[in-house]
Amino acid sequence: MSDLANLIAHANEARQQLLDCVHRFTLAQAAFKPASSVWSIAENVEHLVLAEQGSVNRVWNAAEALRTGKPVWTGDAVHRGRTIEDIVKATWVPGQEAPDVARPRRGGPLNYWILALQCNQPLLDALPDRLFGLNSHEVITPHPISGPWDADQWLAFIRFHLDLHRAQIDTVTQTPGFPGP
């Protein structure tokens, strides 16, 4: 299995683990906010939908731009060869807030966001065709917080990010006052 296929498989696995976790919540549980500054379960999933679409879109655009000889990023690839975990540790502050573009803002029921997250799968699965013939380490586009990431780092981020928010959802469910079934 190629590195690209492996990264996508890990993202798919993380998505499925998250979906297995969130499908069981009632409307009250999905909407529960332990504090005004903490996202509900539904808001976490909405954020994941937006962030994953943005991630895939950035890589797709960077690949197309590279093919036309107009790369999105021409500066120093300061994170070349680093894992996504190392990059996040070095560039995010504790309690890092999401960029505005990925902040939950539409609302709506958890079941809608679950389906929307499932609908991201074909976008991710189509990415290898968009990257065909390109060196994924040369397909570089900046993350709004961390700076330039290559396609492999963006794909690793999708997996990392799903796992991060699954842990945040687990924390919400352990909060005093979380509604029962």
Topology summary:
Elements lengths: L2 H20 L4 H5 L9 H27 L16 H8 L18 H22 L8 E4 L3 E4 H23 L8
Antiparallel strand pairs: 1-2
Helix pairs in contact: 1-5, 1-6, 3-5, 3-6
Quick gist of this model?
With 181 residues, the chain is mainly alpha-helical. It is built from 6 helices and 2 strands; from the N terminus they run αααααββα. α3 (41-67) packs parallel to α5 (110-131).
Short key terms for the protein model shown above:
6 helices, elongated, mainly alpha, two-stranded antiparallel sheet, 4% strand, 181 residues, Four Helix Bundle (Hemerythrin (Met), subunit A)
* Net shape: elongated
Total count of strands? 2
CATH superfamily: dinb family like domain
pLDDT averaged over residues: 96
Termini separation comes to 42 Å
Assembly of the depicted chains: single chain
- CATH first level: Mainly Alpha
Largest sheet: 2 strands, antiparallel
CATH architecture: Up-down Bundle
Structure overview:
The chain is mainly alpha-helical and 181 residues long. Helices cover 58% and strands 4% of the residues. It has helices at 3-22, 27-31, 41-67, 84-91, 110-131, 151-173; strands at 140-143, 147-150. The protein has a two-stranded antiparallel ribbon. Helix 1 (3-22) runs antiparallel to helix 5 and helix 3 (41-67) runs antiparallel to helix 6. It is elongated and about 55 Å long.
